[in-house]
């Protein structure tokens, strides 16, 4: 988070006291803590890359900080402040942002079912905790706040927008249309999207994913400035397989409609989207025309050198499942600042002085929209870029948007710099919408936002199916799955068991020793591997043993690897963990922890002095790739502890450093890290009275025992395994340049 399709896991790296309950992953042991992980997919040339070195004490990223990143991902550095806690390089190469929310899951789920969450822990390098969520967690993440309405100001924007053009200053030199096309008139061929632009804006192209079954129009003639233009607009509905075509309109240059067909989708219709399409069940019931019929008809109608004109034409071609090489997209022709897009309704009023998509009508008129895009293209060709730049569309659009929102007009940059600006507002400034996929039972203020396309599903399975189809079509998506949370009683019991598990895994028994062994020397020996929480002599056996409970798992593992089977004080000793049902899989778990992507590149060292960091920095040229030095401190005294973690850019750099630091010049003990820092923060919150004596058996709650015996599909253990894999497959289907976050928000 390194080929075009590879995700390298460049993730966001990065306590309030609450009544304990189900926690979220990413380090917190406190109630309602949230977990999130982030990764990005990178294109081939300049890759969008996230630098997330943030080693704060509590490993926490606030909602505001996360919102900073999301806004910056949408708008870029020219419009909004950079995130205060990380760096996003080559933001202009970022194509999509996708957030997966596992509602009802928490930090407790992640650690309880660590082995089952194989994909999440391996693919996402860094896990961090979020503060406890409010009643609407998603609103906090995207910065959506309740705002006071100033009243209905619709009368202020009535009439032609051209009347306000005299009130705005015009700077043609910096206008994006002039910068792209120059000030002189251009021919038709100059307005066509290049193949590279079509690829960037997700137009269907032969050989590309999702286009295997698309039908080419066979228009491969020579294009000139006199080639014929055809306006195209499609209406869609929502079916069990995603968006499908319900109407197509094709308008020739003279304004004559040459094709206007209703289309019956192949799959079950879930939502007719009547407010947009104007299509109802009654209208579509008698229709027998299918997609293949209009594909055949369109191929027959278009001449070899036909140029299709539309607004966000990529969506229309995807609905048609057709590929056409020559297109003019008016949402891209009328270039806007920072990659945003003007809406068709706005351009029609500002350029042509006509009203389309009027609110008093039932849905959009596809023929009218197709004709309007054609007129906009002809206007551009007739009057040229300079005439359009003089209209100062950017100022007009900003003026209209602010008045419609009940705000005083301000500069666009000033709008997005406001601290309470939400991600939705940033998307609106870009002329884009947010996709929100969720279960019908879930409620959120997002659903009522005008700039949010909400699709409610009956089940998690349906959410997943819709996500496969819809997510590639939106620049910003939130996909929310809902799971049954642990009951309070079960949660408390599971918390105790998980805390006991980590305590027992950090405990070792060593022996047998001679009755005359040097206890002081033995204590020094075992303390050399890391901080010891307690050490006691076991006299229940024929020969004495030691029970050592370490503060960190790495110290216990290092003691086992270093001392098991060697001679100590004249006796060959065995060093092992206590054997209980909680530690039976400890060997496998240690291997998985060591291979966890967050731990790779991080080493644990014991025996460091107070001046270790200074000595390390003096020889920084030896330790290439060193990114951070983590020096834990005692929470009470504030003194530096005798162990540390070093974070390196690569696993190889970490291994080389470990070999040097364990050598004769440094004489430190160490190994590769096993536990991320958010886990340390979680374990520090364990109350002493909840820890049990190592080796004492804990009987699992009957409800869990019974559920595991019958392997119910809705049991959290099974759900973690099944849905971890399903989300993994969905993740791997995301396109290059996708910033991906997974949130485990926890519950109350």
TrEMBL record:
Keywords associated with the record: Exonuclease, Hydrolase, Nuclease, Repeat, RNA-binding
Q: Where is the RRM domain?
A: 506-580, 601-671
Q: Which PROSITE patterns match?
A: RRM
Q: Where is this region: Disordered?
A: 1-21
| Compositionally biased residues, Basic residues | 10-21
Q: Which GO terms describe its cellular component?
A: nucleus
Name one matching Pfam family.
RRM_1
SMART domains to which the protein is assigned, alphabetical: EXOIII, RRM
**Which GO MF terms does the UniProt record name?**
exonuclease activity; RNA binding
Cite the InterPro entries for this sequence: Nucleotide-bd_a/b_plait_sf, RBD_domain_sf, REX1-like_exo, REXO1/3/4-like, Ribonucl_H, RNaseH-like_sf, RNaseH_sf, RRM_dom
- What is the official name of this protein in its record? RNA exonuclease 5
Biological source species: Crocuta crocuta
What's the encoding gene here?
Rexo5
């Amino acid at each position: 988070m390194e080929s075009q399709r590879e995700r390298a896991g460049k993730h966001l790296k990065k306590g309030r006291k609450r009544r304990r309950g189900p926690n979220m992953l990413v380090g917190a042991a406190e109630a309602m803590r949230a977990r999130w992980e982030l990764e990005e997919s990178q294109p081939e040339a300049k890759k969008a890359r996230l630098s997330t070195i943030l080693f704060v004490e509590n490993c926490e990223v606030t909602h505001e900080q996360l919102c900073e990143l999301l806004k910056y991902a949408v708008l870029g550095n020219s419009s909004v402040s950079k995130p205060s806690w990380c760096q996003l390089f080559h933001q202009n190469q970022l194509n999509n942002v996708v957030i997966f929310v596992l509602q009802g899951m928490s930090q407790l789920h992640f650690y309880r079912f660590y082995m089952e969450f194989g994909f999440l822990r391996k693919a996402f390098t860094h896990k961090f905790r979020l503060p406890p969520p409010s009643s609407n967690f998603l609103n906090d993440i995207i910065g959506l706040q309740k705002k006071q309405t100033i009243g209905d100001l619709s009368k202020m924007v009535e009439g032609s927008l051209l009347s306000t053009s005299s009130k705005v200053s015009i700077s043609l030199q910096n206008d994006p249309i002039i910068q792209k096309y120059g000030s002189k008139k251009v021919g038709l061929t100059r307005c066509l999207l290049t193949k590279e632009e079509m690829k960037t804006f997700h137009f269907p192209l032969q050989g590309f994913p999702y286009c295997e079954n698309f039908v080419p129009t066979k228009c491969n003639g020579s294009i000139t400035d006199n080639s014929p233009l055809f306006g195209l607009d499609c209406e869609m509905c929502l079916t069990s397989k995603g968006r499908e075509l319900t109407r197509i309109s094709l308008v020739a240059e003279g304004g004559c409609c040459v094709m206007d067909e209703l289309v019956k989708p192949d799959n079950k219709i879930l939502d007719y989207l009547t407010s947009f399409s104007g299509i109802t069940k009654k209208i579509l019931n008698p229709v027998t025309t299918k997609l293949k019929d209009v594909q055949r008809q369109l191929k027959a109608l278009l001449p070899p050198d036909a140029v299709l004109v539309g607004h966000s034409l990529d969506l229309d071609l995807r609905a048609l499942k057709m590929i056409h090489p020559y297109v003019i997209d008016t949402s891209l022709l009328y270039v806007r600042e920072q990659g945003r897009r003007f809406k068709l309704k706005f351009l029609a009023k500002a350029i042509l002085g006509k009203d389309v998509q009027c609110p008093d009508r039932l849905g959009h008129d596809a023929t009218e929209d197709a004709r309007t895009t054609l007129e906009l293209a002809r206007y551009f060709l007739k009057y040229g870029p300079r005439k359009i730049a003089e209209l100062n569309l950017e100022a007009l659009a900003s003026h209209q948007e602010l008045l419609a929102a009940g705000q005083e007009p301000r500069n666009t940059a000033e709008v997005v710099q406001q601290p309470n600006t939400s991600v939705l507002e940033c998307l609106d400034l870009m002329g884009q919408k947010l996709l929100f996929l969720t279960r019908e039972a879930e409620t959120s203020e997002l659903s009522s936002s005008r700039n949010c396309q909400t699709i409610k599903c009956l089940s998690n399975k349906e959410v997943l199916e819709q996500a496969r189809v819809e997510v590639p079509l939106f620049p910003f998506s939130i996909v929310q799955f809902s799971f049954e949370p642990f009951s309070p009683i079960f949660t408390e019991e599971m918390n105790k068991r998980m805390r006991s598990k980590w305590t027992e895994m950090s405990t070792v028994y060593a022996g047998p020793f001679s009755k005359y062994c040097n206890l002081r020397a033995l204590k020094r020996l075992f303390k050399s591997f890391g901080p010891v929480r307690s050490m006691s002599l076991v006299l229940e056996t024929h020969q004495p043993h030691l029970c050592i409970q370490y503060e960190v798992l790495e110290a216990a593992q290092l003691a086992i690897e270093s001392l098991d089977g060697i001679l100590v004080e004249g006796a060959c000793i065995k060093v092992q963990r206590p054997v209980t049902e909680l530690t039976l899989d400890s060997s496998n778990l240690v291997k998985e922890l060591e291979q966890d992507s967050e731990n790779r590149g991080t080493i644990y060292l014991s025996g460091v002095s107070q001046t270790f960091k200074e000595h390390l920095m003096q020889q920084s040229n030896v330790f290439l790739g060193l990114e951070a030095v983590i020096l834990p401190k005692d929470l009470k005294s504030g003194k530096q502890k005798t162990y540390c973690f070093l974070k390196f850019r690569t696993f190889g750099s970490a291994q080389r450093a470990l070999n040097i630091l364990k050598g004769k010049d440094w004489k430190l003990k160490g190994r590769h890290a096993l536990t991320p820092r958010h886990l340390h923060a979680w374990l520090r919150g364990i109350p002493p009275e909840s820890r049990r004596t190592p080796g004492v058996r804990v009987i699992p709650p009957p409800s869990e025992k019974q559920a595991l015996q019958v392997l119910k599909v809705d049991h959290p253990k099974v759900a973690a395994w099944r849905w971890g894999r399903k989300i993994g497959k969905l993740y791997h289907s995301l396109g290059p340049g996708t910033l991906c976050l997974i949130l485990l928000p926890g519950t109350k």
